[in-house]
Amino acid sequence: MFKKHPFAIISITILLAAGIFWTILYLLDFSVPEEKITYGVTFSKAHAEALGLNWKETLTAALDDLGIRHFRLAAYWDDIEPTDDHFAFEDLDWQVNEITKRGGTIIMGVGERLPGWPECHTPDWAQELERGEQQQKIMQMLPVVISQYENNPAIIRWQVENEPLLPSVERCAPPDENFFKKELALVERMDQTRPLMTTVSGEFGPWEDAGQYVDVLGASLYRTVWKSDATYSDYPFPPAFYKLRAETTRDVVPRIVLSELQAEPWLPGQALDAPRAEQYRPVNAALFEKTLGYARKTGFDEIYFSGVEWWYWLKTKHNESAIWDVARPLFPPEANPPLAGAIPATMSR
Predict the structure, then answer these.
(1) With CB atoms 3.0 to 4.6 Å apart as the test, which of 206, 218, 262, 320 could cross-link to 314 if both were Cys?
(2) Is the distance from CB of 323 to CB of 263 less than 8 angstroms?
(3) 118 upstream amide cis, omega within 30 of 0
(4) Whole-angstrom Cα distance, residue 51 to residue 43?
(5) d(CA 240, CA 47)
(6) In angstroms, rounded to a whole number, what is the distance separating the alpha carbons of residues 142 and 112?
(7) Is residue 156 within 8 Å of 343, Cβ to Cβ?
């Protein structure tokens, strides 16, 4: 029978080999915890406001209560250019200045597709433009942002777009690799002293496609996600999965960091609309510690959490500080050494 169906034999062999490999990966996971890890967070003014928080108070608490010193910020297009050719940097300036005053570091995200929901932050006035016109406006916006912050020593990297080559869900145009390369070239022309960074999904798509264009690549790591059928799904990957992906990608980009570690619920709409028990299903204090232990075994020495705004919302609006308190020991000065190779003398590109 199999002589008549050689492709069946090949398919079965491949499936068996994959199954054996996956089993070995789980049972003999060779990942060991990274000893020295720098921890930071992504902070979003818009996310804090959506949770009903005072965003300045939230960032100040992250800085002075938790002691966080490493941040991912973003120059959200709809926030910094509310009307065509009229820029408003007051709020972002405040964030940058507060972090700078405390000796912190900032990865500044620029472009249209940046961390947070919705994925693309196109201002209302640009929504109706043809895609080519939108891209023109983005190329006009980028130099303004770079000029605003290039002289600030707290800015250690420019992150150009967020997961730019991953097919997006809502509110984003299809990925455009050629345009992404133009954005990178523009930022590099303006500032050749700082590394360029972009990000990829840790779970889906090749890392090399985006990594080949930058000096630093960030990958996300999500453990429990919401599905369209109103259920949760736990990704089955062991820590070695991410470690192997990083090792095989370092041929094209030598530095890879964990840019988005899940530490808040991923639910439709805003988290505050869901019952607290539902919010705690993907992330609670115990799961936070479990996810942290998992992330340490991936081998990354630089990790940024999502969700600091949600932690503060739980603490201040509901008197539930368990996650805030669990996170606190990660951020004392002795546990947050300066970022190694933040601005290398020579870069790979």
Answers:
(1) 320
(2) yes
(3) yes
(4) 13
(5) 32
(6) 10
(7) yes
With contact defined as beta carbons under 8 Å apart, do 112 and 122 qualify? Answer: yes
Q: By C-alpha distance, which of 276, 258, 256 is closest to 267? A: 276
Give the single-character DSSP code of 113.
B
8 A C-beta contact, residue 260 and residue 203: no
Whether residue 95 contacts residue 62, with contact meaning beta carbons closer than 8 Å, is answered with no
Per residue in 25-36, pLDDT tens? 554 565 666 679
Domain boundaries, the chain: 1-30, 34-335
Distance CA 217, CA 210 (A): 8
* Domain at 34-335: CATH code: 3.20.20.80
Distance, CA of 185 to CA of 223 (rounded, Å): 34
Give the integer Cα–Cα distance in Å for 287 and 269: 22
Average pLDDT of the residues of the chain: 88
The CB-side HSE value for 63 (13 A sphere, CA atoms) comes to 20
Q: Specify whether the CB–CB gap between 121 and 76 falls below 8 A.
A: yes
Task: Sort strands 38-42 and 155-160 into parallel, antiparallel or unpaired.
Answer: unpaired
> What is the C-alpha R_g of the chain?
21
Per-residue confidence (pLDDT) for residue 4, from 0 to 100: 55
Measured CA to CA, the distance from residue 173 to residue 176 in angstroms comes to 8
Q: Does residue 174 sit in helix, strand or coil?
A: coil
Model confidence pLDDT, tens digit, residues 63-82: 999 999 999 999 999 999 99
Nearest partner of 316 among 51, 47, 50, judged by Cα: 51
Instruction: Please give the share of the chain, as a percent, with pLDDT higher than 70.
Output: 80
What predicted TM-score, i.e. pTM, was given to this entire model? Answer: 0.88
Q: In 261-296, which positions are buried (b, 16+ CB within 10 angstroms) versus exposed (e)?
A: bbbbbbbeeebbebeeeebbbbbbbebbeebbebbb
Q: Using the 8-state DSSP alphabet, how is residue 173 labeled?
A: P
Instruction: Please answer whether residues 120 and 161 qualify as being in contact, where contact means their C-beta atoms are separated by less than 8 angstroms.
Output: no
Residues 6+ away with beta carbon under 8 Å from 185: none
